[in-house]
Amino acid sequence: MARTVDAPTAPEKQMLSEQVYAQLRAAIMRGEYAPGDALKPQELSRQQGVSLAVVREALVRLVGEGLADRLTNRGFAVPAFSDHRWQQIGEARRAIEPVLLRMSIERGDVTWEGEVRAAHHRLARTPVYTPQDGEYYSEEWAEAHRVFHRTLLQGCGNPVLLETFDRMWVASELARRWSSHRNPERDGIEEHRRLEEAALARDPDTAADILIQHLTLTTAALADREA
Q: What is the pLDDT of residue 199?
């Protein structure tokens, strides 16, 4: 008599979905999928050795983060350059993040100042590129970059606004990495140094202007590539 295989329990399914999500997210961020590439649930199910339901759950999560598109025929794909979402996200960040930065400069205490200094020191000392990452930013630098920007803003003391930043950051991370291909000569080190300097000098106008320029350059670089 054939032995039946028990269906995974809810916790097991959740764990499998988390694993598939993490693997797909990392592959997309490393550039293993080109812009517009299809993410086929059945194919991914076979590759990962998991059910279609597990794969779809992971893909829906990626859609929510802006790292995948759900197509009209119920398929999935890596976002394409022709999608103007990235410019829209850039516009949203330029509208919201300078406000949070001004609030941080106004409300941030000495502890916040120390955290900003530490985050910038880590960012400045982390290699932007490593051999295993090829033309893309290194994983370590990408995380140091995220921490620096979030630390600059977290002095605002408003968790709801910080959650908004977190969602926008994830949605724009892929676009930012793509833009790094376009302008490898960009002096990000100097941009971040000026940001730290203006924030710790408690100069909200200068800090906001620098941040807007910083965000605009990333959006413009992607627009150049899209053209």
A: 98
Residues 95, 148 within the same domain: yes
What values do phi and psi take at 189, rounded to 5? Answer: -60, -45
β-strand pairing of 69-70 with 76-77: antiparallel
The average pLDDT across 121-128 equals 94
d(CA 197, CA 207): 8
Give the C-alpha separation, 109 to 217, whole Å: 30
- Looking at the structure, tell me whether residues 56 and 92 fall in a common domain: no
Same domain as 132, residue 30: no
Q: Are residues 200 and 140 in the same domain?
A: yes
Which pTM was predicted? Answer: 0.79
What pLDDT does 3 receive? 41
Residues with Cβ within 8 Å of 158's Cβ and at least 6 positions away in sequence, in order, are: 100, 103
3-state secondary structure of 109: coil
Q: Cβ(96)–Cβ(212) under 8 Å?
A: no
Assigned token pair, 198: 């203006």
For residue 17, what are the domain limits?
A: 10-77
| 8 A C-beta contact, residue 66 and residue 168 | no
Within a domain: residue 4?
no
Structure-block tokens of residue 165: 């930043």
Residues 6+ apart with CB under 8 A from 90: 172, 175, 215, 216, 218, 219, 222
CATH of residue 33's domain is 1.10.10.10
